[in-house]
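Lab notebook, page 48
Experiment: co-folding of the full assembly
Goal: obtain a model of how the components sit together before planning crosslinking
Operator: M.T.
Materials (sequences as entered):
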Amino acid sequence: MAEFLSLHDAVARYVQDGATVAMEGFTHLIPFAAGHEVIRQQKRDLTLIRMTPDIIYDQMIGAGCAKKVIFSWGGNPGVGSLHRLRDAVEKGWPHKVEILEHSHAAMACAFEAGAAGLPLAVFRGYIGSELPSVNDQIKFIECPFTGERLAAVPSVRPDVSIIHAQRADRQGNVLVEGIVGVQKEAVLAAKHSIVTVEEIVDDLNAHPNACVIPSWAISAIAIAEKGALPSYTHGYYGRSNRFYKEWDAIARDRDTFTQWLDDNVFNATDNVGGQA
Amino acid sequence: MSLEYTSSEMMSVTAARALENGMTCFVGIGLPSEAANLARLTHAPDVVLIYESGTLQTKPAILPLSIGDGELCESALTTVAVPEMFRYWLQGGKIGVGFLGTAQIDRFANLNTTLIGDYKAPKVRLPGGGGAPEIATNAGEVFITLKHSKRAFVKDVDFITTLGFGRDGKGRDNVPNIGKGPTRVITDLCVMKPDPETKELVVVSLHPGVSREDVIEATGWEVRFAEQLESTPEPSANELEILRELKARTERVHAGA
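Observation: model returned without errors.
Model output:
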């Protein structure tokens, strides 16, 4: 059964220095409050997995939490570059960060394979792409039945996955609605999982085919109201497109970024990262 | 009487016209999204638009800033998980056309969204592949739209993120279960299509007021022109009005959020 913990205690217990961490949410339900808690607790040497690093990983990379980033699209959606990611990769600030890049199809399949308990994902991908020449985790295998050449990547098996969701009931069952991304796969693929939610309710009111993650498949649940801002929570609040645009100027400069981090993460106790 | 319009509007309208009513289109963010929604709001009301965030058959009233904006989900027929999107819908062969943008494209329509320069020491680091590598090979065909410039249209891309026809034009030969690849490239100057034999991109249509020299000047290889070079039809007043309304609506909403 999932244990109800404060966000502080959940992160302290399950996110260890050196861990492999997936914080998912495909441009929706991005667990910013949890990301800020990881920054506040100054976790180090994390291998961060996310299809779209987004500004959540930009913040964590700039704050010095990351050793390696595994991703498939590393931009600020609709805006431009992730300047902290680039500064770390290109200039080693605040320290050198290694990257391993995939395509979306590869990562989605790798999460699914992780949830399915398989060592690898097989799919029809990377044909003619030069990504396999710079990522030694991309291999090709021959279908034993048809002889077709197919791509293979290792499954994603994080030490801990962290997602944000609309709500949990009092038993700790979680409902995820809207763009569900790879969140369920991320939770099921991981050894441990933390789910932050907007609220705890008596009844999830979920229809029979809704995306519900049972309590016994989750390690910890923490309440984090507006925990996805500046990303959004379908049915609760919208995406702060304005903050995503403002982030470009904040992240471009090391001093501005450091000041922002002090003001909005280190000297804050809850998520105010997306002042909308 | 001819209408007043910009070269960007000409590009969007021409790209929109490439989509036929009833097509099933996997839409990239940015220019492809603008063109695909313009098509849906004009001549192709039944075009099926699919975004990689899992939103199937979506009808956004405003253009999304990110690939996973709430608007896409709220106006979709249904929303599926991302692994299902790539495995069942794209890899499963349910997508007629993939509509992509890019940072760099070469004469064999290979796309680079990874970096400019050397991989280990990039001059400019770009966001990476995203959905494109598999959209380009698993969709029935691919349309590409981007602005024409010497920086973008290069002889050979620095890095093939996404396959057009490979370094020699033969990248799709004898590959099983692969789509036709890029069938047209729509820019703010012209429309290009791959030569049926060599697969090198050839200019087939010039936009009104654009000369051959303009295209030659903005292309990083010795670009060829089709023997029967056509003139791209101008946008209609209706298309321009709907495009401008769509962009104004989008700007209003994004500025307010």
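Interpretation: The first strand of chain B starts at residue 24 and ends at 27.
Next step: discuss with group before ordering constructs.
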